[in-house]
Hints:
Alpha-Beta Plaits; five-stranded antiparallel sheet; flat
Amino acid sequence: MSTLRTRLQPFRSFRSRLTLFFVGIVIIPMVVVAVVLFLLVSTSETGKTDARLAQSERAASGYFQEQQREGQAAAEEMGADAELSGAIGAGDRARVADRLRALARTTGVRASRLELNGMEPIAVGAEHAVAPAVSTLIDDQERQVGRLVVSMMTADTYARQLRRFTRLQVILTQSGETIASTMGGVGATVRIPLRGTAEIDGRRYRLGGFPAPAFGGGRMEIHLLARETAAATALSDSSLIVAGALLGFLVLAFAFALTVSRSLQSEIQRLLVAAQRLGAGDFSVQVPAEGNDEFAALGKEFNSMARQLEARLDELQRERGRLQGAIRRVGESFAKGLDRDDMLGIVVQTAVDGVGADCGRARVRARPGEQLEEVATAGDIGHYRQAIHAAETAVLDAGEGAEIQVGGATALALPLHTSDGADRVLGIISVARAARPFTDADRELCHYLASQAGISIENVGLHEAMQRQAVTDELTGLFNHRRFQEVITTEVERTRRFGSDMGLIMLDLDNFKRVNDTYGHMQGDLVLREVARVLRESSREIDEPARYGGEEMAVALPHTDLEGAYQFAERVRRRIEALELPILDGGGTLKVTASAGAAALGVMPGTDKDSLVAAADAALYRAKRSGKNRTVKAE
């Protein structure tokens, strides 16, 4: 024990304590702030690069899919070419290759590959291509004889285009081999990951990318490379400068503390009195600082500290104003949100934090005219529920904000209106706290957040409408081809996973071209809309009717076997046959018929999505060839 006291003896002097105190409240916080600042700068630079890579990946993927869609149209056009079919039937490879080249010139195809059953593939065009599209070839007996793979763009062109609109370096690889690159220093064989960092040609890059189907089979990888900035080097230099400055400041501060502490012993009482007055909020206190000795300098510093504290209080008030501004900026960002419930959760939490409330909640209507439903809360509203309910009732009655005090609790509720100024209440934002009423500033802040939340709810509705338009055929109101492909892929996978049934019908209007040629396209559009209406009215909620293309429509039928699909198709066919459509440019009515093919996964073990569609399509064409206006089951 005596040894410990001996070791602590040097720290009992006032001078030593002052020095340690000065270091603790000045130097250490400055070091912590500097470290945090460096971490924030480093994280910000990395985040910007990753965000840029993510945005570029989405753009590159969308461009890839766009090329596939263009290629699909060209593949179907080439696959339907009669001369090509004749050459295939004759088994003349040279004639087939010549015809493929001719069709490629007319359709803009850059590479094509014909894969026939029992024959070596016939490939023409560029060696490396991207965004392959596939068309199945069917002979006169409705048998699949092969497939045609086409691409509208070479790998080099795709890489250059990505480089042009993303401003990033692009490398395309397949099986570890480089097939296209915008970088001159990349070898023929390169192994780079889709994510992370890599050093290429002596430079560091952050990586992004995605896998995609390759033209000749298998998969290719599309790599996007962003050059790492010099931020790390600059940060390292800054760290040395700041460290040197901190070290110098530490030395000076320590020397200053030792010098000043020599004269504090005799004047400590006077300083204590002044400190007490200062602690009471009297910033006008002045410590006598006559003379030129060290204590006079400390007195001056004390007086300076009082002025600085007063200035700091003023700065804190300004910080409060800046906080209010930051909350307003957060509120402006709400108007861009697309997830209604999450956005309202942020609004409620921001309102609770901004006004110092104990709890809050948001209630909205799922649809106009329906009851309000609670979608977000912050804090425990149990003790404040009565006050909140009273305030919300007042809002519904008056259509404007209300503040109610009930049982020692104060609740403030504000309506969510539409941006057009209509009185219709979309929902209500409420906050509550114990007893203390809300100030004008509190009400103004909550009103602002509520107005921004109302705009955001409208934006959510607009976004959902745009999403519906993206997957809906404009003429018929059915799902479009893209949505149908997504649905049937999902349903086939679900059917395989759970061992249930999956039915599909393909339906085509008989002699529809004759309707357009005789009565015009407006009459044809009317026919398509009416047939689509029959499909919708005949379908269950879980069914997925879609316009497959032209006058051909399809319906995915989850949990339906082949017989169920056939019966569904027959009901639809009879209802179409019973339609009597008015002729638009004259008197009388028009009757139409349809042929349908029905297929199901349950009778075709191991069948994938494409095979299911092909089976239903083949059944449809058998119905066409056997007299039309009938339904045929898949074999």
